[in-house]
Structures are given as structure tokens and as C-alpha cells.
Design goal:
Elements lengths: L5 H6 L11 H32 L5 H10 L7 H11 L5 H13 L13 H34 L4 H15 L3 H15 L15 H27 L2 H8 L4 H13 L1 H5 L1 H19 L4 H10 L3 H29 L1 H6 L1
Helix pairs in contact: 2-5, 2-15, 3-4, 6-9, 6-13, 6-15, 7-9, 8-9, 8-13, 9-11, 9-13, 10-11, 13-14, 13-15, 14-15
Length: 338
Amino acid sequence: MTLTSFSETDAAVPGREAGAPRRGPATLRLVVGKAVGAALVLLGAATAAFFAQASLPGDRATVILNIRAGQAIERTPEELAPINAEYHLHDPLILQYFSYLKGLVLGDLGISYQQHRPVIAIIADQLGATIVLTLTALVFAWIIMVVWVTLTAGRGPAVNALGGFFDTTAAGLPHYWLGIILLLVFALTLGWFPVIGGTGPVGIILPALTLAIPLAGFLGQATRTEFERSLDSPFVLSARMRGMSDVGIRLRHVLRHAVLPAVTLSGWALGATISGAVVVEAVFARPGIGQVLVTAVSSQDMPVVIGIVMLVAAFYVLANLLVDIAYALIDPRLRRAS
């Protein structure tokens, strides 16, 4: 009797192509590859942040001491000695760099020059408000996108052009400009919302809309083409023949297929919204890491600045990593390509 080799038996398994990689190893390679890529992106962001700080003009020990003292004057070597010892500023730059990377790996973002507290504690105090704003903006963006695309897609050349124009225009609006316009119109002129510092349900609407409108335009661009293509599908004709209304077809059948590209972009959307929230919080004087960042920049508190930059980069990379992995696990073609 002739023995059948493992590769022949493996190729004969129903539903598996000859020579195709097994799902387990292929999936593992995919996850490891994505994780390594994400780690390299974070390493690049951390390296750029460190050397940007190191290249700033002036003596860092003098800057730190002046920040703590609240006055900019010349300092003697005796005054600077404790600062140099505390922050190891006399160590070679390469040693400072590796010490900095070690701290990041261990979750240590350093000590604030101004508050003399761990940066991670300062950020944690305000991160909750930023996350609430970010999630609210994502919900608003999806609502705006779904309503607008459903109302305008596939309605004829004129309406389609109007819908596409709104998508493109909204996607390109800068957050700081849009926030100021919304403040002028709805807070100062109409008085419907608080001008600054609103923390309740009403106070979060304008900041969330500032983030949501550009994001809705971007998601709308990704959804509209697929929505119009789905309107020409056989299942739409079948639904019309059964007497289903146009609104019912669009919401129950077409939208379910059309939003897949927007779902794929959710990772990018989450990272972009968090980074945009930093700007929006400053415009609306809301609590959050945006206000912390503005204060840190104005006072040259570089550990806090770098900590927030790294936090935003980590959110951005992690969100995209999770979406990439989930999408690739769903689509076996990406596993075979890996």
C-alpha cells in the first residue's frame, strides 16, 4: 500500500486549495506582522518626540528650574546641579534616549516640569473627558453620514452632485475654524449653547459636532459610491417588486451593504477624532487633554507635551491595528496574501 504524504492529504481537504497556508499559521503571521508594524510606528513617533525636545535651544536644566520658579533668570551651576542629577541631563544623549524608551515601555512618561507630578497621572485626570467627547463625536458623525447619504444618494444627477459636494466640503473643514463658526452662530448669536466650558449634555453638543461634521463627510465619501452601486443590485429590484417602500429599501437593505467601507475606516476615524479632540477642547475651553496640552506648550513643559503626543499616537496606531487585524481575519484573501 502506498503511503500518502502529509502535503497531499492536506491538499485534499475539502475547501482548502492545494498549497494554501493553514489558517492558524497564516493568521498568526498576519497578527505578528501587524503588531510589529504598529510597534515600529510608535518607535518612530517616540524617537521624533525625544530628539525634538533635545534639539530645543537653551539649557534644559535652566528651563526646568525657571519653569518651577516661575521666573526666567540666569542660574548658577550650584542651582542647576540638582536638576541635572534628577533628570540625568549630563548623561550622553544616547543613554538619555534609551532611558526614555525604557520608561515608555514601563508606562513611565516622566515627571512634569511645572507640576512636578508623573505625566501619566496628569493625563489620567483629564483623559475621561476626552474619551467621552470622542465617542459622542463618532456617534454624531455616523448619524449625520447615514441620514445624508440615505437622503441624497441615487436621487438623480443634481441631488447626487449636491450630496457629493457636501461630503467633500465637510471632510476638508479644519476643526479650529469650524469650532469658531459654530461658537459664533449658535453660542454667541443665538445663545442656544454655552460659550465656553460647558460640561453637561448641552455643553458637549457643539464640540462634538465640530469633530463629527468633517468625519461625517469623510465617511460619506467612502459610503456614497457603494450605496449607489447597491441600489442597482438584484435584491433591490426584488424588494421593489414585493412592494417595499423606497425608504425601507434604503434603510433595511442598501445601507447594510453600503456602510462596510465606513466600518473598515473606523480605526482611522477613532484615532483622527482623538487627535482632533485636542484642538477642539482648546477652542471650547473644555476639560480634557487638549487643555493640558495648551498649558504645557505655553509653559514649555515638554514631558507633558511628549506624553500627550505619544498617547494620541498610541490610540491612533492601536485602533488601526485592531481594525486591520479584524478585517483581515474576516477576509481570507488577506491571510493568503500575507
